[in-house]
């Protein structure tokens, strides 16, 4: 599966077929983009798991130290971490059999992208999941 950024049909399918999103690098600070995007995703009907080993809870919800610690299958791994962390995150996404790896704006790593594609993940890099959802006019879940 190639990087499908810009393939509106594939993006719509991902949004409609997904229910659970792990937000890697989720901040507890409401001023941060990761916090705001996670809240948006929850508001439109997705179950969101915050992943940040430095934080125990975010707004009363347990925060997980890793993707592997999440207690159920994850559809989308949405990444808010520096690109240097992507190879490790991709390996975790593959290990938990996530369907899609989505990295936020300015987060791109060509080696990690190649590995994710070779492992069969849908890959969207350097794109805001909230903006794409809104741009495509997806109806709430």
From TrEMBL:
Residues 15-107 form the CoA-binding domain. Gene3D superfamilies: NAD(P)-binding Rossmann-like Domain (3.40.50.720). InterPro entries: CoA-bd, NAD(P)-bd_dom_sf. It holds the Pfam family CoA_binding_2. It comes from the Bacteria. SMART domains: CoA_binding (SM00881). PANTHER family: COA-BINDING DOMAIN-CONTAINING PROTEIN, CYTOPLASMIC PROTEIN-RELATED. This is CoA-binding domain-containing protein. The lineage of its organism: Bacteria, Bacillati, Cyanobacteriota, Cyanophyceae, Oscillatoriophycideae.
